[in-house]
What we know:
Blueprint: E1 12-21, E2 24-34, E3 39-43, H1 50-57, E4 65-70, E5 73-74, H2 79-85, E6 86-89, H3 101-111, H4 116-129, H5 145-157, E7 163-167, H6 175-190, E8 194-199, H7 202-208, E9 211-216, E10 219-225, H8 226-230, H9 236-243
This protein binds adenosine-5'-triphosphate.
Protein name: ABC transporter ATP-binding protein
Subcellular location: Cell membrane
Domain ABC transporter: 12-242
Amino acid sequence: MAEGAGGSAPAVRVQGLWKRFGEQVAVAGIDLELPAGRFIGLVGPNGAGKTTTLSMVTGLLRPDQGGVEVVGHDVWRDPAAVKARIGILPEGLRLFERLSGRELLAYTGRLRGLPGAEVDKRTTQLLDVLDLAGAQHKLVVDYSTGMRKKIGLAAALLHNPEVLFLDEPFEGVDPVSAQTIRGVLERYTASGATVVFSSHVMELVESLCDWVAVMVAGRIRAHGPLAEVRGDAPSLQQAFLELVGAQGRDRGSDLDWLGGGAMR
Ligand SMILES: Nc1ncnc2c1ncn2[C@@H]1O[C@H](COP(=O)(O)OP(=O)(O)OP(=O)(O)O)[C@@H](O)[C@H]1O
């Protein structure tokens, strides 16, 4: 196996990855290497294949063809080694609803094989940092969307993974919670860990990420350091619109009946 630029394995190496759902090609043979120790954004329009890609990279969905390695371990041949090294906050996160936030973290920690005292210590710290200490004894079923994202993030971080995968982590999260999540993620990557997250929000990706991959119609259209992908465009948003070929598109002008209040 070839080594990455820093002498260590890349966080993720994807080779010839395909996924079809019936006639629909969701991921069309992508090759991608994500460097370790970076804050990486996977961006693309609705239906581009981001969730399908992240699901295959994290071992949640079997590819039709191709391979994935995470920190040098094959996701399908050596799933236990990969799962021990990654944390996942998936889209449509399912949690054990009848546990309290604290119980959920205790359960997750023991499943991860951590000693009880360590789980207890990390749980208290994570609940505190993520502003959930006041809700720790509340059942998860009664958590708001933002609180669910935060407890899901705490569960994904508890075993101190090398790579953290987040599918739309800021969706439905208020600005204060977003700032809290952001702080935790920045601290995490500053220590050399890797974050890979998908988002539609370009301003967010631009302010958080130092490396991006742009996915369009199941393929990787551009990837590399943020400044390189942005190029001469004034913002990542502008570069993205150019890459997906949506610049200047104004489909709204077709809706000539919309607005004005008059019944027509
Ligand atoms: N389980 C499934 N069955 C059928 N088609 C699917 C399934 N999952 C995804 N697709 C299709 O595959 C394509 C890629 O979907 P995917 O959810 O990966 O895109 P995405 O980039 O994450 O989109 P979004 O930003 O809207 O969440 C879409 O056309 C979608 O309809």
